[in-house]
Amino acid sequence: MAAPAQQTNLIANAYFEGNFAADGVGENWLKWVVEGTPVYKQITSSTDSRRVNEGSSAQQMEGSDMSYVAGLQQPVSGLTVGKTYRFTIYAHAWVNTGDNADASTGTITLKAGIGPGSTYAADPNITWSGAYTYTDSFGLLSVEAVAMDTTMTVFAYAATTATHKHNDVYWDNAALVEVGAATSTPAATAAATAEATQVTSELVAPTDFPFPTPDDSGQIIYYVQPNDNLVHIATIACGETMECVEKLKLANGLTGDIIYPGQRLIIGPLEGTLSAVEAEETPAPAEADDTSSAAEMAAEEGAVAGAGEVEAVAEEAAGGEAAPPQEATGAICVTLYSDANGNGVLDAGEQLVAEGIFSLVNLDNGETLDSYATDGASEPYCFADLATGTFRVISAAPVGHTPTTRVDWDLTLAAGSTANLEFGAQFTGEEVAPTEVPESTPLQPALIGAFGVVLLLSAAGISGYLVLTRRG
């Protein structure tokens, strides 16, 4: 069978030979950041020819003594619905604990993705390639998807595996072409494949993964892979039971079962669970015959239950009634800033905006809980004392301003957590009709955040910034 004819490359500035914006991103491309603060910049062949695959310029993402999950994206329009498109991009990482530019001492996970419409990097509907760890020389990333709309967004994805002095990624030679019919993902060259480690490729079912080791804070973190599901991850984390699934959801502030590739999950320690080794070595507690032994048992359980629960158990063992524990409340803090450069990020020197309106809606019952008018001086303003639940924050920019970020956010707030939302608006001098949220809008959270995650959503030039933190 004859090879298909050469197809037109639909990517703008595919070889990163055009101008680079003030934020260090090649023109026609947008940056997205889920975690960390990598620096985006141009790298030229005159600086280091090994970091440019073709031509004289490439895109660099630089991480110095940090970990990150971030990448690039570009919306592409004019597609034919029902046709299959292939996105490819060349990439490699340089990871080193010192300054040896000739060899890497670690890896970075690299992927390519295609999302339907003008979308963002956390969209669970993105089709991702297999994950590769090309280091020190370029390798090919490739993924195919059927166009469900006349627009799709392509993504380049990088996730560090550890903190190193140098965690750098280089992107070059991107292409989006129509292939007519679905075909298998093309393999990289034999030489490149020999240097790469394929983590996952065209998975049809989730596979077991090694249980990660705890980080410096004692948490065990897992990044969701393609075709993973909560039940499978729970099986590895704490057992094949619905109770374990619920504990996994509670630890990560999830209200549903939807997860997406690249999502950061806390899988340990989960409250009330023991590792397989601990469960094997821990004998069943003997029955207590008196109050003192019961109190001792309560104290031993403190490592899992917490000091407050220990006191309650001890009091109950002594014959008293334990007071019901009070659930910690959370907060959602909002800021409206003047996005002078229109990049959707609150940059140094950008001022707050007065006369904007924020409304907070409880999506569990549709009730508007509170509203706030910005004064441009005292923000961020926090909607405080919020119980665990799913909420929507709706922003309205003042007259003469145009929003540069999303105008509404849906999020699930876990007990004791604080969400910080930053909304941008650019002064235009023109009156803009206020954004209305249709009554038919599904009351489902568009984003489910995990503690400690920074999420930068960029789509067709519209971005927003979400920071979730847990209060001590």
Concise synopsis of the structure shown:
This protein is mainly beta. 12% of the residues lie in helices and 36% in strands. It folds into 3 domains: 171 residues, Jelly Rolls (Sandwich); 35 residues, no CATH class; 141 residues, Immunoglobulin-like (Sandwich).
Q: Your description of this structure?
A:
By secondary structure, this protein is mainly beta. The chain folds into three domains: 30-200, Jelly Rolls, CATH 2.60.120.260; 283-317, no CATH class; 330-470, Sandwich (Immunoglobulin-like), CATH 2.60.40. It has seven helices and 24 strands. The strands form six sheets. Strands 15, 18, 20, 22, 23 and 24 form a six-stranded mixed beta sheet that branches. Strands 1-4-10-6-7 form a five-stranded antiparallel beta sheet, with no helix packed on it. A five-stranded antiparallel beta sheet has the order 2-3-11-5-9, with no helix packed on it. Helix 2 packs across helix 3 and helix 5 packs antiparallel against helix 7 (307-317). The longest helix has 11 residues, at 307-317. The termini are far apart. Residues 1-5, 181-207, 273-318, 437-465 and 467-472 have low confidence and may be disordered.
